[in-house]
Amino acid sequence: MTPESEYQKIREEIRSEHALIANRLTWYVTSQSFLVSAFAISCGSGFTWHHWFPTLLLPLIALTTSVTIYPSILGALKTIHLWREKQSEFFALHPDISAAFDLKRPKWIVSQAMLFPAVVPLLFAAFWIVIYFAS
To answer: Residue 115 half-sphere exposure, CB side, CA atoms within 13 Å?
Structure first.
């Protein structure tokens, strides 16, 4: 395998993991928005047919989705971190390719970019816990 094709493989894997996180977050945020809408509509319209629906069932479903999605997002973030380490090792072995493609970004930029996917499920989970106990 040539160094160029090896670098391309590493970049494709990182891109693939970013796509996985984006797809998972899109699905997750969309599902949460529907659940929040259902909660707001059922509480705001005086929905009394089943009083447990907005105060027990919706928060339970939302918390379940948060707990379900969180490990997969953390797994993808960890995989990206591993691939970035592999990329750094590759750059150390191939300084000519490193000079062309390494952006020399501070590490905090990468870690801050990965903060959003890690925090969003926790924020929604906290929201639903507050809704459950406040209702």
So the answer is: 7
